[in-house]
Amino acid sequence: MSEELVPHPNESLPGPRASPREVWKKGGRLLSVLLAVNVLLLACTLISGGAFNKVAVYDTDVFALLTTMMLLAALWIVFYLLRTARCPDAVPYRDAHAGPIWLRGGLVLFGICTLVMDVFKTGYYSSFFECQSAIKILHPIVQAVFVIVQTYFLWISAKDCIHTHLDLTRCGLMFTLATNLAIWMAAVVDESVHQAHSYSGSHSNTSHTRLNPDSERAGGTAEEDPCLCSTAICQIFQQGYFYLYPFNIEYSLFASTMLYVMWKNVGRLLASTHGHGHTPSRVSLFRETFFAGPVLGLLLFVVGLAVFILYEVQVSGERGHTRQALVIYYSFNIVCLGLMTLVSLSGSVIYRFDRRAMDHHKNPTRTLDVALLMGAALGQYAISYYSIVAVVVGSPRDLQGALNLSHALLMIAQHTFQNVFIIESLHRGPPGAEPREMPPKEPCQGITFANLDTIRTLPSYPPTPRLVIPNPESPQEAVTIISAPRCHWRRRCLKDISLFLLLCNVILWIMPAFGARPHFSNTVEVDFYGYSLWAAIVNICLPFGIFYRMHAVSSLLEVYVLS
Questions:
Q1: pLDDT at 225 over 60
Q2: How far apart are CA 312 and CA 517, in angstroms?
Q3: 145-182 burial by CB neighbour count: b if 16+ within 10 A, else e?
Q4: pLDDT at 555
Q5: Residue 318 burial by CB count (10 A; 0-12/13-18/19+): exposed, middle or buried?
Q6: Mind listing the pLDDT tens digit for each residue in 401-450?
Q7: Cα(430)–Cα(444) distance, rounded to whole angstroms?
Q8: Any idea what the Cα angle at residue 537 is, between residues 382 and 317, rounded to 5°?
Q9: More confident: 535 or 151
Q10: What is the mean pLDDT of residues 196-220?
Q11: Kind plus residue range of the DSSP H or E element containing 45
């Protein structure tokens, strides 16, 4: 008789028990990855080439490619939804860890902001419809349809472990993921070129080269361009969709992470459709906390907003005002990063006294979260190390240089210790998950009974404190819940730490996402590396740093729930 395998309820089944359709599982994944890589490289080539006037790649070519990719991805999503609706057996399992509610909620929020951005872009291009290509107006409309279809798809299907048309599903998911990454790159390039032009003073009424008409690339001048944005409503539309770019960027990245988890779950076999472990039943903010973390986090959030507004107002003024704005900006960031570093360290110290077992079971969502946290942090690491070299080697020893150096060092320390805290938190078991091989050091004082009659038949047993006996008239059986009050303070501290870091990461996301660029206002790095090299470093690395903050927010929210 063959041995019966009993896997973890949310663990993939062993290889010998796998379905014959999955014999070529690695080959199917390789095929889908190759498709996504080739499509993404083509899109990246056109997008990067279209960002420069000297390259004969017109903006209409980029819009046409992105529009085609979004249409194909939307058609595949509709096919997937129709197939799963007609064949319920196509999704026999659902991954309880995939697509948590806060991730889907963030996707909906950023999707709504992306729809508003598409409305602004449509209004902007419609302001001079006579001299614009139809694809420029069609592109935001198609993107709005794509966002609606994809958001609905990810909301209802993020947990699916589909078991039909495996290779086709993998290729469709990877193509949709490549489409989102292409949209993300287009938004990053547009925003980066706009920032470079705004700080170099070489831009005109048109905000960035992607909006420049084809005639200018052919050799025409701005004065001859009949498509200038001169009306007040056109200026509103133009500035409106530029400030909404950060939400579009985050939407594309959120969708990409959820699509990747779905791709990993294609053909996955689970022992039970009811996962367990880290899936919370309810989320209640500020519950069982000391309120110190939320209050201090909200205080820093409000102060950060005031510093950001002050910085944006003063940085465009005189040189003296710019220097004052940089001192205030760096001072706030140094205080905020220093507190975050200490709080992250204290969280790691608290875990040294935590008796919860480590969760080593297979979890694609957690694996992706850890990889994204580590990978996205490299962008801010790179900027910080470039700043350290510039300040130490070539900067005059003044207050601004000292603040810049302290800011760069604290940025590295904060990312490191925060990653350590988050990753260890994600690998901790739920509350009450004690290791089986060793009993707790301080056993609970009490007895747990499953039947009320057993309590009455006991001999004169000494009364047990904290023994909760349910009402005999209740239809449920008697259940005793014995808590460990000596461990409760650790849970409260971890919740406070999570909320504090969450609020701080939100304000540190808002500042660079909505235009704060001390990297260019502070001329130390520009003078040391030259504007072209430094702009390339910042424009490549900073989007990863911005994404890190938002991804850290979602991870810290999960840490709060798990604590």
A1: no
A2: 9
A3: ebbebbbebbeebbbbbbbbbbbbbbbbbbbbbbbbbb
A4: 87
A5: exposed
A6: 889 999 999 999 999 999 999 988 887 755 555 544 444 444 444 444 44
A7: 18
A8: 110
A9: 151
A10: 45
A11: helix 25-50
The two structure tokens encoding residue 84: 């799963």
- Picking from 365, 369, 366, 362, the residue whose alpha carbon sits closest to that of residue 12 is 362
DSSP labels, 422-479? HHHHHTBPPTT---SSS--SS--SS---S-HHHHHHS-SPPPPTT--PPPTTSSSPP-
Contact 548, 415 (CB under 8 A): yes
Q: Is pLDDT larger for residue 520 or for residue 430?
A: 520
Residue 532 has a CB neighbour count (10 Å cut-off) of: 10
For residues 554 and 502, give the distance between their C-alpha atoms in angstroms, rounded to a whole number. 8
pTM, two decimals, is: 0.71
- The DSSP 8-state label assigned to residue 2 in this structure reads P
Question: Could you tell me the pLDDT band of residue 102, with boundaries at 50, 70 and 90?
Answer: confident
Read off φ and ψ for residue 279, nearest 5 degrees: -85, 110
Amino acid residing at 390: A
Secondary structure (3-state) at 12: strand
Residues 6+ apart with CB under 8 A from 55: 49
CB 84 within 8 A of CB 160: yes
Give one DSSP letter per residue of 196-251, joined into a string: HHHHHT---SS-SGGGS-HHHHTT--GGG-S----SHHHHHHHHHHHHTHHHHHHH
Q: At what angle do helices 101-126 and 232-243 cross, to 10 degrees?
A: 160
CA atoms within 13 A on the CB side of 519: 31
Distance CA 550, CA 185 (A): 17
- Residue 383 near residue 544 (C-beta atoms within 8 A): no
Cβ contact 494:350 at 8 Å: yes
SS3 81: helix
- Two structure tokens written together for 34: 């190759």
Give the separation between CA 444 and CA 470, rounded to whole angstroms.
19
- % of residues, the chain, pLDDT over 70: 71
CA gap 120, 244 in Å, rounded: 9
Q: Flag whether pLDDT at 340 surpasses 60.
A: yes
Q: Which position has the higher pLDDT, 42 or 233?
A: 42
CA geometry: angle 337, 369, 98, nearest 5 deg: 135
CB atoms closer than 10 angstroms to residue 37: 12
